[in-house]
Amino acid sequence: MLFMTVAQHREIRSRVRLLSHILSHDLREQVRGVDVMLRLAQEERGLQAGELVEQAIAQAAILDRRIVALTRFVRQTDIEEEPPLAPLAEVLAMARTQAPGLMVTVVGDLSPLVPKVLSHAIGNLLSNAEKHGCEKPAAEVVITTKSRGWARKKLINVQVTDNGIGFDPRIATEVFEPFKRFDANSEGTGIGLAIVRQIAEQLGGSVSAHSGGEGQGATFTLEVPCGS
Predict the structure, then answer these.
(1) Does the pTM exceed 0.70?
(2) Which CATH number, 3.40.50.300, 3.20.20.70, 3.30.2380.10, 3.30.565.10, labels domain 85-225?
(3) Is 56 helix (H, G, I), strand (E, B) or coil?
């Protein structure tokens, strides 16, 4: 198989199902919280009851966002064993639709064939740059190719550098964990970068993050096998 063995693919899909189970438990906890608050609101009167209802509504909003995020996570990371290929130029064009307000500069060869599902991963990186960018969010996408191993497997390297808020270098691996949010001002779900990592791993590749610190932007490097 082009990207990974059947056993590897099944093992990763098993991990996705396990993660879905864990997240479902988290969502049930949110539901219980809303239920308790609404019951208390029914028993109380006056301002306190209003405050309880507001808290319940806020909990419900969180629950709604997490359900949507969980659905998106499962949908975008359920990859076929032989994913269809497309020219990188086409994949990148699809990815850019996820961040219409981002100024993007692209450097490199866009002719290699890559899995079409890569558009979700690159799109999430661009969307992340747009959400956490400065007043005029921008990103540079640098494309390179290289060979690895005795079989000289060809790899595509996609590096996305933004001018956003950056992050503490000590949490470079934590940014890919589901529902992790490090920007209190963002309304994101914290699932986008987790999707990027899951897609990269299922394609037999990897993703890493680097930042010089808060306010210094960030660079995300995505590397997966090419189709040709």
Answers:
(1) no
(2) 3.30.565.10
(3) helix
